[in-house]
Description:
CATH superfamily of the domain at 253-389: L,D-transpeptidase catalytic domain-like
Strand content: 15-25%
CATH topology of the domain at 253-389: L,D-transpeptidase catalytic domain-like
Largest sheet: 9 strands, mixed
CATH architecture of the domain at 253-389: Beta Barrel
Number of strands: 17
Distance between the termini: 136 Å
Low-confidence stretches: 1-25, 52-130, 393-401
CATH class of the domain at 253-389: Mainly Beta
Structural class: alpha+beta
Number of helices: 7
Radius of gyration: 48 Å
Amino acid sequence: MPLPSQSQTSSVRGRYMYRRRRKRRGPKVLFALCIAxxxxxxxxxxxxxxxxxxPPAPVVAQQRSEPQAPVxxxxxTRTVETTTRVTATPPPPAPAPATxxxxxxxxxxxxxxxxxxxxxxxxxxxxxxTDSSFFGTSDVITVARxxxxxxxxxSARDVLSQAVQAGTLxxxxxxxxxxxxxxxxxxIVFSNEIIPGDPYxxxxxxxSGDSLSRIVKNLGLQVDWRFLQRINGLPRPDTIRVGQTLKxxxxxxxxxVDRDRHRLSLYLGDGPDRIFVRxxxxxxxxxxxxxxxLFRVREHSKLVNPPWTNPRTRERYAANDPENPIGxxxxxxxxxxxxxxxxxxxxxxxxxxxxxxxxNESMGCIRLDDGDIDLIYEVLAEGxxxxxxxxxxxxxxxxxx
Length: 401
């Protein structure tokens, strides 16, 4: 007897359907029915035994005129087909990237904005005033350069200034920081440009009857009127006109003198917030005769093209004498410490001997070269500006130049 898979059928009503025979009348019908019953019982018992012992043989489809029904594959787990839309639960958002050590990150613009990268403030900005160890590393230079790349001159200057004053940088980094700060201040302090947010610069519109000296007095500026002429690029002080916009710097300025390095460091502002401006090379007293401690610019002591008398030889030099050793500018200093209040004749001045700058050859005073002394004269204010000289075991100085 053929197996169900071998039955010939043209019908698709059932997989195991086989061809039916025509019915005949007579005795043969009963015989046929008996044979069919016996065959059916045998087939049923054989099928049951096959199901319990071994799996059925695979059904082999023979050639048919009708195509077989396609087998439906199991649904994809997370594969998105082009013809089927699969809704999947989105993954949890990725953790935010860590803030770079440098303190800056570049954030992509929102979808509605342009595609240009946008600089954003650091999530953890460098805090020089709270972490003094920050100033002992070259990271200071890196952070300052990043501020400059973003056009933030004031922040770059603040970082460099605090690092310089902390005194913990290596010699190379200290020089680099001072050089960078001086270059920044050439624009912030010594040009006519007003940087938004600068606490020491103001804009002033000239009024009728104004002069540079009157502007300084009326605004209570702690600088000389010549400094306004300098930073605004005026050829003469009387060239200002009504309606003209001027930049004014409020001050005050102070100075520190490093005896070992023959360096005068200029600062702007008071207290812990003061700003390092730039350095100047100076000449000091022979045999360490420059007195130490804190000094203030004496009232009514600032002189332009002053006469001078040598305290040792009593030789006198007229105001316009080209041999006058103290040059064209003089600022008298008075001691404000207990040990230096008796100092007399001590001051800051120019020199006609540029080779003495950077050396110990004066009679105790602080010498600056032409050009440098002009600027120091303009920014140090009488009765306000303080000059600090590093302490050392000084020999009794001789007053004078």
